[in-house]
Amino acid sequence: MGRANAGKTTILQRVCDTTDEPEIFNAEGEKVDATVVQGSLKRGYHNIEDELVFKSNERFVFHDSRGFEAGSEGEFDMMKEFVMERAKTTKLDKRIHAIWFCIPLNDSHRMVTAAEKKFFDECDTGHVPVIVLLTKTDTLALDAFQELIEDGLDEEDAMKKAAKVERRNLNECVVKVKGWLDVLRFPPHDYLSLTEMDKEGAECAPLLTCTANALSEEGLQQLLISSQQSNLELCLEFAITKLNQQVFHISSHAGFHIGSVKFQKI
Ligand SMILES: Nc1nc2c(ncn2[C@@H]2O[C@H](COP(=O)(O)OP(=O)(O)OP(=O)(O)O)[C@@H](O)[C@H]2O)c(=O)[nH]1
Ligand SMILES: [Mg+2]
């Protein structure tokens, strides 16, 4: 989910380790001709019912929201109906498992729009976690630099102090967004800031770890981690965490302690 230009497609491409456009399938599972939708895709047109799949990793199926910030009630209602129905359906192939809600931080004048607040006030996604992704946080670096120049620093000093100001500004943004969303009826499950996702090789592990941790069903957690194919370390990390939990379970029942370090070495 997320307004136009929020960085949605970029994140999906990173997760699937590709720069290609996705293949699109309509609600009936028929492939949609990419040349027909190409122009409209560029303008941010999406049909949330469509399934997006990247050739590089066909294990993930994505749905991309329309930019419902445009203020059209009809579009918002369509999105809400889709999310609430797909979050609860018992049909496995139709179920959505997690929602990444992108809020770009490069537009300080409209950090959170009314339509975004409305989502968290009205959309009951049940067990499906909604994770707010604060995107494009790298753009805060230039803002920080400019702020320091405006305060009268020369370029060299501004460069030196920019990182600190950037961190402070990011923290302030996170606090503000949380303050707005956490008071609503269906607040986000978690928040994560992402930086430079438009750069090749951008780090996806925090996003996958955060999502896996948000999934309430253990089976789904494992499925997510095994679906991502690019990060073996993450597979190992989750396998070890799982093993440690089992070991702890056994040891607490058996009344003796088995050091988890030993098992990590194995
Ligand atoms: N600086 C910066 N730019 C980014 C980042 N992520 C994406 N972008 C750029 O932002 C623009 C929009 O990214 P998209 O991924 O197409 O955004 P989208 O949400 O899919 O947009 P629509 O499909 O139009 O709704 C592109 O030019 C990206 O290269 C980021 O982390 N940092
Ligand atoms: Mg897009």
Structure in words:
- With 266 residues, the chain is an alpha/beta fold.
- It has two domains: 8-230, no CATH class; 231-266.
- It has helices at 8-15, 34-42, 73-88, 114-122, 139-150, 155-181, 205-214, 218-227, 232-254, 260-265, and strands at 23-25, 31-32, 51-54, 57-62, 99-104, 130-135, 190-193.
- The strands form two sheets. The chain has a four-stranded antiparallel β-sheet.
- α5 crosses α6 (155-181) and α7 runs antiparallel to α8 (218-227).
- Bound molecules: guanosine-5'-triphosphate and magnesium ion.
- Magnesium ion (MG) binds next to α1.
- Magnesium ion binds next to α1.
Helices and strands in order:
Blueprint (H helix, E strand, L loop, with lengths): L7 H8 L7 E3 L5 E2 L1 H9 L8 E4 L2 E6 L10 H16 L10 E6 L9 H9 L7 E6 L3 H12 L4 H27 L8 E4 L11 H10 L3 H10 L4 H23 L5 H6 L1
Parallel strand pairs: 5-6, 6-7
Antiparallel strand pairs: 1-2, 1-3, 3-4
The chain binds guanosine-5'-triphosphate (GTP) and magnesium ion (MG).
In short:
With 266 residues, the chain is of the alpha/beta class.
Average pLDDT, all residues: 84
List the ions, cofactors and other small molecules found in this model. Answer: guanosine-5'-triphosphate, magnesium ion
Structural class: alpha/beta
Number of strands: 7
What gyration radius follows from the Cα positions, in whole Å?
Answer: 21 Å
Shape: globular
H/E element order = HEEHEEHEHEHHEHHHH
Helix content: 40-55%
Question: How widely separated are the two ends?
Answer: 41 Å
Q: How many separate helices?
A: 10
Low-pLDDT stretches are 254-266
Which sheet architecture does the biggest sheet show? 4 strands, antiparallel
Number of domain units: 2
| Spatial strand arrangement across the major sheet | 2-1-3-4
Binned strand content:
5-15%
